[in-house]
Amino acid sequence: MKVVLATAPDNDSPWNQNSFPPLGLLYACAGLADAPEFRVEIADTYAEGLSVDQAVSRVLSCSPDILGLTVTSGNVSEARELLTGVKTANPGIVTVAGGIHATLFDDLMLREVPQLDYVLRGEADFSFPALCERLLDGKDVSRLPGMSYRSNGQIVRGEPQIIDDLDSIRAIDRNLLKKSLYGTQWYGWKLPEAGGRVTTASTSRGCPFHCTFCSMVKLCGGRFRHRSAGKVFEELVIIAEQGHEFVIFLTTISRPIRSEYVNYARC
Length: 267
Ligand code: B12
Description:
Elements: E1 2-7, H1 23-30, E2 39-44, H2 52-60, E3 66-70, H3 76-89, E4 94-98, H4 100-104, H5 106-112, E5 118-120, H6 127-136, E6 147-151, E7 154-156, E8 185-186, E9 189-190, E10 198-202, E11 204-205, H7 216-220, E12 225-226, H8 229-241, E13 246-250, E14 264-266
Parallel strand pairs: 1-2, 1-3, 3-4, 4-5, 10-13
Antiparallel strand pairs: 5-6, 6-7, 8-9, 11-12, 13-14
Helix pairs in contact: 2-3
The protein binds cobalamin.
Cobalamin binds at residues 5, 7, 10, 13, 15-16, 19-20, 22-25, 27-28, 46, 68-70, 72-75, 96-101, 120, 123-125, 128, 202, 214-216, 250, 252, 254, 260.
């Protein structure tokens, strides 16, 4: 079974194309790494700077059975167009949305986007592989933890999943990404020497602060969790072995975005 995880274009935010990789997608599919019955591909149409039509062709060229799409409030309209284009071309593709916007507005999206089949709310490190397994086995997918879906004209809303023990999550595989796509700019700042040599790593999730403008609090209710130093170090070794020279640590303590990337390390 072919699983494609994608970002949607975001025509209003060109300044972050070719910046940082979609770790969320890598975490959502990490649990499928040991399952030979699944072939996984990442289509980061945002970083590739594609138009919506190009993104539809890009995704279809991957021949997905399951399409997982990350949605932010900034590109929900492009996401909707992408889902419409893909489903119109092949109604048999199962479409799943996730990420911050889909988690917060799952019912609205399921009501307004008939081309969307499911929403997995919150952290999908375990729920997305579980959904893929059930779809493969043709099993009932309702009542999967964190899943929102339509049933008899109603929207059944799943509880956003929050993973307490971040060390229980499987390591992500950055080989699923095109390294050269990332690290050439950030917020319009050109990063001449970093192209293809930089990646990001997430060391914690959640945030103890409650800034009114920030959506993170809604996603994780302020539950701050961090990975152990040992697990982070294990990942740095893999990152260096995969040829990355710079790592930007993403802390999810969301303050005005500028400060999030103050610390980076050279491999
Ligand atoms: C790194 C980062 C980026 C990177 C990489 C983006 C990416 N796709 O990951 C770059 C620099 C490219 C970026 C750009 C932007 N970003 Co940004 N970004 C972040 C940041 C700091 C960390 C994301 C991350 O890696 N988290 C760690 C991973 C493990 O968690 P995750 O991504 O949430 O994924 C988990 C779940 O959400 C879920 N999930 C996620 N995607 C999917 C998909 C499927 C199918 C499923 C089932 C589940 C699922 O499962 C994952 C594993 O548990 C977050 C803040 C935050 N703390 O999360 C802001 C954040 C996501 N960004 C935000 C914004 C606004 C933007 C920009 C619009 C900024 C701008 N004006 O340019 C652009 C838009 C780009 C776009 N449309 O994608 C907002 C989104 C708010 C909202 N309501 O949508 C956030 C939440 C910051 C904030 N505090 O408000 N961003």
